[in-house]
């Protein structure tokens, strides 16, 4: 039962030229559902600071494009050690805290 991860079309088990694997979901897709879109994978960014673009299925691409600029992941809760090894993250975190403090005082005035 080897089917496309989205449209559920049967995929041939022999000869992977008729399907593609999505680096985001890990599933195989038919050539209509995986057209070779490239995107960075959030888990790889968080774990390895890897911003490489990987081939993903159209469905995954649509999802990632939709959430890419939203604050979906609180990095400090998942991988707080990154703030110790990536200077720009520590600087950004400090700046955000300072802005939050300034905002607090501005609203009190």
Descriptive account of the structure:
A hairpin with a 6-residue loop joins strand 1 and strand 2 (28-30). This protein has two domains: 1-73, Herpes Virus-1 (2-Layer Sandwich); 75-108, no CATH class. The mean pLDDT is 89. The strands form two sheets. A two-stranded antiparallel sheet has the order 1-2. It is elongated. It has five helices and four strands, in the order βββαβαααα. The longest helix is centred in the last third of the chain and has 22 residues, at 87-108. It has helices spanning 42-48, 58-67, 75-78, 82-85, 87-108, and strands at residues 19-21, 28-30, 37-39, 54-56. By secondary structure, the protein is of the alpha+beta class.
Which structural class best describes the helix and strand composition?
A: alpha+beta
N/C terminus separation: 66 Å
* CATH architecture level-2 label of the largest domain: 2-Layer Sandwich
Helix/strand order: EEEHEHHHH
Taking strands numbered 1, 2, ... along the chain, how are they ordered across the largest sheet?
1-2
Round the mean pLDDT to the nearest integer and report it. 89
Keywords summarizing the entry:
109 residues; alpha+beta; Herpes Virus-1; 2 domains; two-stranded antiparallel sheet; 5 helices; 4 strands
Summarize it.
By secondary structure, this protein is of the alpha+beta class.
SSE layout and pairings?
Blueprint: E1 19-21, E2 28-30, E3 37-39, H1 42-48, E4 54-56, H2 58-67, H3 75-78, H4 82-85, H5 87-108
Antiparallel strand pairs: 1-2, 3-4
Protein name: Differentially expressed in FDCP 8 homolog (Trinotate prediction)
Keywords: Metal-binding, Repeat, Zinc, Zinc-finger
Domain Rubicon Homology: 20-109
């Amino acid at each position: 039962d080897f089917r496309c991860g989205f449209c559920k079309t049967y995929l041939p088990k022999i000869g992977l030229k008729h399907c593609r694997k999505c680096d985001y979901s890990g599933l195989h897709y038919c050539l209509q559902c995986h057209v070779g879109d490239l995107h960075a994978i959030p888990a790889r960014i968080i774990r390895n600071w890897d911003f490489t673009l990987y081939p993903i299925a159209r469905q995954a691409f649509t999802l990632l494009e939709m959430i890419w600029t939203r604050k979906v992941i609180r990095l400090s809760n998942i991988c707080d050690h990154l703030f110790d090894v990536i200077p720009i993250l520590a600087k950004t975190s400090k700046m955000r805290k300072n802005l939050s403090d300034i905002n607090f005082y501005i609203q009190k005035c």
